[in-house]
Specification:
alpha+beta
């Protein structure tokens, strides 16, 4: 028997979370190389701990001086908002150990001898869309992101005082007949100044919950189901409180657990890495399918092998009751989308320096910009799928 009444929870973390600091820095490195040479190759990992940042990985492209990169790392930390004793943009010890990309990897990826460019690695990537929100994202992750994003905006413009950069959110929703009907609990843990009492933290944060989640979903939510800093205080945070690493928030980055994940992180990788580019293409296709009205939900899986230019498989799953449409949808995909690594990059214009902005508050459910950011969120292929 199908269970279609349930509780489902997703979490988000802010740009000041230690792992997100690392994602931001790694994506800054990607953008730095792509801004000088759009065919640069980058795989950058970042580690942060108490007042220390370490970069490591492989690159191929223009020569960027270590001091230039280190200054850009400081600018990232400054923009996030860290000028604390345990982690400061002014005093952090920053080291970089980036080196040339492996010749073996380059050989498998490069196009030569009339051979199309291959995928930068093997793997599986998923894209998902559903009609739970206006941006066709699962509701719990969408609202978890929105709470923290609004908090960060007001913290940076001086409206939200006493709140520091490191925050986490969690939204639980009741689903009835597979549709979200109400929020049953919200958890916000946020770093704050030592002068701010917990009662003040709670009073300060609750309005952001109400601004982020539609009123009809909050109807009946009691104060006791809103948990603000449930441990009692959160003064020591960021990399001073916990070590951060690139790529440890892959569920936060995608669909909050509402859809499968192929396992590969996005941040720090140039778009020849299908972990990133094919996940964006999968979302692009799934979103246009749902926007067309074919189905209320769509899951896409793509599979690749290193050095092979075409996906090994394309899997499509629609909402229950729409299974008969799958073969026609797959036919449309095969006839209209070049899902080779080069084809994806050209289709979504991924060789531009557009990645630093993706590093916090989710890679999906965002607005495409005139700078080319979030191009995979465009709904310009809807007409293709209208049956």
């Amino acid at each position: 028997m199908k269970i279609n009444n349930y509780l489902f929870t997703s979490e988000s973390v802010s740009e000041g979370h230690p792992d997100k600091v690392c994602d931001r820095i790694s994506d800054m490195v990607v953008d730095s190389y792509l801004s000088q040479d759009p065919v640069s190759r980058v795989a950058c990992e970042t580690l942060t701990t108490t007042n220390k940042v370490v970069l490591a990985g492989e690159t191929r492209g223009p020569k960027i001086e270590k001091e230039d990169l280190i200054n850009k790392v400081r600018n990232c930390i400054k923009d996030i908002g860290y000028d604390q004793k345990g982690f400061s943009w002014k005093t952090a010890n920053i080291e970089t150990f980036l080196h040339e990309q492996s010749a073996d990897i380059a050989m498998g990826v490069d196009s030569k001898d009339n051979k199309d460019e291959g995928a930068g690695d093997q793997g599986i990537m998923f894209g998902y869309a559903c009609k739970e929100t206006e941006d066709l994202m699962p509701a719990p992750i969408y609202y978890s992101h929105k709470i923290l994003r609004l908090m960060a905006e007001d913290r940076k413009n001086g409206v939200l005082k006493g709140i520091e950069p490191d925050s986490k959110s969690q939204v639980t929703m009741l689903y009835e007949k597979d549709k979200p009907v109400k929020v049953t609990s919200v958890v916000i843990s946020t770093q704050h100044s030592k002068d701010l009492k917990q009662e003040e933290v709670r009073k300060t944060i609750i309005p952001y919950i109400k601004k982020s989640i539609p009123e009809n979903y909050l109807d009946g939510l009691s104060d006791k189901e809103i948990y603000i800093n449930p441990t009692g205080q959160f003064i020591i945070g960021g990399p001073d409180g916990d070590t951060g690493l690139t790529g440890r928030k892959i569920i936060v980055d995608t669909y909050g657990g509402a859809a499968p994940h192929g396992g590969g992180a996005f941040s720090g990788k140039d778009p020849t890495k299908v972990d990133r580019s094919a996940a964006y293409a999968s979302r692009y296709i799934a979103k246009n399918i749902v926007a067309s009205g074919v189905s209320e939900k769509c899951l896409i899986q793509l599979a690749y092998a290193i050095g092979v230019s075409r996906p090994l498989s394309i899997f499509v799953k629609l909402a229950n009751g729409d299974e008969a449409k799958v073969e026609n949808v797959k036919k449309i995909i095969n006839e209209n989308f070049d899902l080779s690594p080069r084809g994806i990059r050209e289709m979504l214009k991924l060789n531009n320096p557009i990645y630093e902005v993706t590093s916090a508050y989710g890679h999906f459910g965002r607005k495409a910009t005139n700078k080319g950011e979030f191009s995979w969120e465009k709904m310009d292929k809807v007409e293709l799928f209208k049956l």
